[in-house]
Amino acid sequence: MTDTPKARRPRSDGQRSRLALLAAARSAFMAGESDIRMDAIASRAGVGVGTLYRHFADRSALIEAVYADERDQLVASAPVLAARHKPLEALRQWMQLFVAYAATKKMMTPVLETVTGGAASLHERSGAPIIDAMQRLTSACVTAGALRDDIDPMDMLRAVYGVCTIAGDRPQQAVQFIDIVLAGARPGVTP
Description:
The chain has eight helices and no strands. By secondary structure, it is an all-alpha fold.
């Protein structure tokens, strides 16, 4: 009988290095430094270049990891919000987090375009978890009677994305639009 090797958990210092690299890269990309060199990112993270390349094979891998981390934080917030709040408030707060996520994506567009296949390819490959989170939150609202039963979760996702697009560089206005969208989806409001 052969033992199958157990998956190793990342060492805590390795995990700290990875998080520091992601934070340094995110900060640079958000500041518009789309052409920042890998050694500069490593330096800002307080690690050596070898450590950076142990975690990320190349620049595209680092960019994709920053993008995935943003998406994963958004997705992970859905069950946390659902556990802490009533369904409609959980959905509202998640939609507000989506506004921040969309703003980050927009600011990172020049960097995302440098990934093989461009930003559209990256967005396409990562949409399923976001769709799933929206479906769960919206379904909970419908079940609780907080939203009409004819509300399509994909329409809610399209609405919040549209809100982000309309608001442009004014995220506070996007948050106000979310309340308008949710008010229009309440029971007793006819489409």
